[in-house]
Amino acid sequence: MNGADLQQDGANGAPAPQPTAPDDGLEKTGAAPAAGSPQQGASFSSFSRSRPAPKVVLRMEVATKLQARILTWSVIALNIAFVGLAVALFAIHNQDSVLASEVRNMYWGRLVIAAVCLGALLFTAAWFFFAFRRSQKEGRVWSKRQHYFGWTAGGLMFLQTSYAAVVLATLITTWTCLSASILFLLARMKNMVLWRGPGALDMHPDYRLLVDRPFADQAKAYWLITSIWLVLEGATMAGMILKLNKIRRTTIRTITCDTDLMMMSCPATPTQIAATAISFVVIMVFGISWVITSRRALKDHEQLPFIHYRHAPWWSTHIYIRVQARVLTPVFTAVVMSLLFMSVIPTFDSNCVSSADAQVGNVATDMSMTVAAIVMAVMFMPKAQAFDSPLLQEFLQDFAWTEEGMPAAIEARNQRMRDSELATDQAASAPQASRRRRWPPQCHDEYFCFPAYPPFRRDSLLQTTEGFITNLLTFLPGAAMMGMAKMAGVQDMESAAKQLSEEPIFCMETACRLFYWTRLAYRKEDDLDYEFINVDAAKRLFNLDQHAMVWDDETDTHVVLGWSDSQVVLAFRGTASLQNAMTDIKAWKMVLPPHRRVRGSVVKVHAGFGNAWLNNNFNKKVLEKLQEIDQAQQGTEPLRFWITGHSLGGALAVLASDEVAKAFPDSKITCYTWGAPRASCLSVGNGAFTHEQEQAVPDTWAILNGGDPIPWIPKGGFKRGGKRVTVNAKGDLVLRPTYFETSVMQRGTNASHHKTGGYALSLAAIFKAQFVSSKAFPGGAEGVRRLAAALDLGSTLILKHMDIKSLEDPAVLPVSVEVVSKKNLNSSKSLMDECGGGCTSLWPFGKAAAAFEDGEGGGEIEEDGGATDPGQERQQ
User: Fold this and answer.
1) % of the chain surpassing 90 pLDDT
2) Residues near 287 by Cβ (< 8 Å), separated by ≥ 6?
């Protein structure tokens, strides 16, 4: 086989769009390398460009887990505080005695809060603007999606700034701005749902959302919410007119500082009460509609190819919806509660404190919307180039389909980074005139547009002023910015290229081979010669010639070893007995001997897993066996180690990999775990062990399936490290997902997803999805063909209908051989889903997945206590 089989993802983990996607306006070369090149015959999914242009990188796309948590959880905490403030003010208004002087002081406080909110909004708006202008100067290219997200943040910023600016103007202005903000956000979320109107079937598979339709279609979709908003505005206007008429007909009483406002009567008319009630109900309807729309958008996106709509510069709608849901749900809740306590209830109250308070704005609502606008602007503004490390997340998303293609895949990954950095430098230093020629926007069809905005015409004074303000707003002049970037750990090109060349790459072929060994570890036969899984087939996967088993009867810990003169495979069994279950529940920490510190912390691990590894010198027995194999080998090269395990076995695999690395420092070690608990997956305890293990075995991958709950426990006191790979039965594959990507992929739990059979189906889903146009990775079909040529997928995954012909046929679904043997499903017709094969683009495995959810696939404990292993159909 020639060359590499690389599946390259886009920035921050999103595979690049199909080569058939609309053009981005930049000159491209073909995806296939030139004949005779080291990459000949490779199938790449990248946009290979002779003159690549740097992309805009939004802060949302590179936010770390800590940054994302701070932003989202601070919004929740602040809005809880704002609701508390509204309740406190409500309590103050209903005291037995409230003097006018006290109210005056309270209103002065509100004025200060309004001024602070307005100042923060203006500062953020200016920061956003100059970040936008900076991206222009650097020659960065905006995608249509990023443009949409930026306008969402900018639109909310404008509306909320208008609200804050007139917060004391009372009457209709604040209500209009507030309701317009809510309408705006609801409309922007509604744009994220699938278009189901005329022309839906003719839309490009990557542009199937309402936002991708012409504005006329979008306006038609907004008619209901727009009508409701007009009702709200009408009620607000009616209330204002009634109040003005009431003031005109009322004799104003002189109020001094000693006047007790609670002794005065300011009753509302029935019409005023009705107008207020209607306004509140409409706001409630807006809030409920926003929740329903966001849920529908998420559900619609489950039917779309996550690789094209995930977190990336070109396709970010998945994360956009999740960010909006995280930020705006608590905001809308706080707004509704604040309006209830600060506007609705005071309208029904006859005291003048409440009546006056309802006219001067809602301080809690003002602060809630201000926080929302600022957070949205920060998340969706372009990131500064000075703080862009060359080693962006996008270069860590690549994976190889086959082991033979890994070297070329790594080299192609490194070259992409060099090309990207070169393009950024060239764009930043390009003459202003060259950038001016990119106007008007480069729109190549109605769905794909890369707007490149024209530079402003300005004289030297204005240009100097803009530069000064830019530096002021970022707090960092040019030289200081680069210095701070170094302090923040941003790498230069040379160090980033060196690190990237040493970064491991995930290999699908390796995962499949080790998966078979994971299933083998659950067998209890002395000769490991089960009908459907046997040790001879396992050894052939790695060209091994011998095998052995190491047991600890007390904890029922078990590992299967296979070896040759050059390599060793270790497969640890997961939970399969009561003793194993007792190991799992010992979720406290223990010091891992020998006592040592890493980065100032004592190395500790999950007590149950650590004890299982150390009990009765089990670890020494394993290492002694490995030393024996090493001494008996004929070759001069260090042994190559492959370590794997499922569930508890994954935890033990991580512990073992650390010790094997110390015992064999010159050996290359690869560790793939499947559904391993959080305490053992990659961190097995605390941060000290995480760092130690990742340094010792960087080629460690934790594979998580769909709603598998086990990898997320225990929750407290244990860290996760290493490189996560998320798969699911919809054919989605996400490598090293970000915090926001994880929140999209990990929605709910399903214990059946923890079974090894569920993992097999998810891998099969990825392979079958490559032959579905709306879900395929670019170059994915060719990658699967190469993988199938290197490996018998059906026998390795223990599934039926895994040949290329069956994978290409949407009516033929992969199914466990065990299910076939139990139900005597001998024809492909009986394996068709309820849509006659038409569901495969949305849920590739209908009944096959349902069979595992009924408990018919696994490799764990059966009711009789035995281990179940679906069989395999031998293909010679």
Assistant:
1) 23
2) 182, 332, 333, 335, 336
Cis amide linkage into residue 594, ω under 30° from 0: yes
Nearest CA-CA partner of 207 in 216, 219, 194: 194
- Distance between CA 52 and CA 595 in Å, rounded? 51
d(C-alpha 832, C-alpha 766), whole Å = 18
Order of strands across the sheet with 6-7? 6-7, 399-400, 506-507
DSSP label at 589? E
597-598 vs 799-800, strand pairing mode: unpaired
Cα–Cα distances (Å) from 43 to 40, 397, 401, 406, 510, in that order, read 9, 16, 10, 12, 18
Mean predicted confidence (pLDDT) in 462-488: 47
Q: Distance between CA atoms of 671 and 531, rounded to whole angstroms?
A: 27
Q: CB count, 10 Å around CB of 565?
A: 14
* Burial per residue of 658-697, b for 16 or more beta-carbon CB atoms within 10 angstroms, e otherwise: bbbbeebeebbbbbbbbbbbbbbbbbbbbbbbbbbbbebb
| Sequence-ordered list of residues with C-beta below 8 angstroms from that of 5, at least 6 positions apart, any chain | 42, 43, 400, 401, 402, 404, 405, 409, 782, 783, 786, 787
8 A C-beta contact, residue 364 and residue 83: yes
Is the CB of residue 31 less than 8 Å from the CB of residue 779? yes
What are the phi and psi torsion angles at 351 (to 5°)?
A: -80, 150
First-to-final CA distance of the chain: 20
The DSSP letter of residue 201 is: G
- Sequence-ordered list of residues with C-beta below 8 angstroms from that of 707, at least 6 positions apart, any chain: 746, 747, 748, 749, 750, 753
CB–CB of 688/601 below 8 Å? Answer: yes
pLDDT given at position 146: 79
d(CA 684, CA 815): 34
The candidate with the shortest Cα–Cα distance to 54, out of 132, 137, 141, is 141
Q: What single DSSP character describes residue 816?
A: E
pLDDT at 797 over 90: yes
Q: Which residue has the tokens 């069809």?
A: 445
Cα separation, 57 vs 146, whole angstroms: 9
Q: What is the per-residue pLDDT across 716-731, written as a single tens digit (0 to 9) for each?
A: 677 665 699 999 888 8
Instruction: List, in order, residues 6 or more apart from 403 with CB less than 8 Å away.
Output: 507, 509, 510, 790
Distance, in Å, from the CA atom of 238 to the CA atom of 172, rounded to the nearest integer, reads 10
Three-state secondary structure readout of 623-656: HHHHHHHHHHCCCCCCCEEEEEEECHHHHHHHHH
Mean pLDDT of 579-584: 89
Separation of alpha carbons 180 and 189, rounded Å? 14
Q: Please report, as a single letter, which amino acid is at residue 181.
A: S
Q: What is the pLDDT of residues 368-388, one digit of tens each?
A: 888 888 888 888 888 765 444
The tokens for 625 are 């066996």
Distance from the Cα of residue 864 to its chain's centroid = 40
Q: Are 747 and 707 in contact (CB under 8 A)?
A: yes
Q: How far apart are CA 747 and CA 749, in angstroms?
A: 7
pLDDT at 327: 86
Q: Do the strands 399-400 and 506-507 form a parallel or antiparallel pair, or are they unpaired?
A: parallel
Distances (CA, A) of 559 to 553, 643, 658: 12, 10, 16
CATH topology of domain 517-754: Rossmann fold (3.40.50)
Task: Spell out the domain ranges in the chain.
Answer: 6-54+400-502, 59-252+260-387, 517-754, 763-876
Query: Which backbone phi and psi does 423 adopt, to 5 degrees?
Result: -65, -40
Q: Which amino acid is at 686?
A: N
- Report phi then psi at 110, rounded to 5: -65, -40
**Candidates 1.10.287, 3.30.70, 2.40.30, 1.20.1070; CATH matching 59-252+260-387:** 1.20.1070
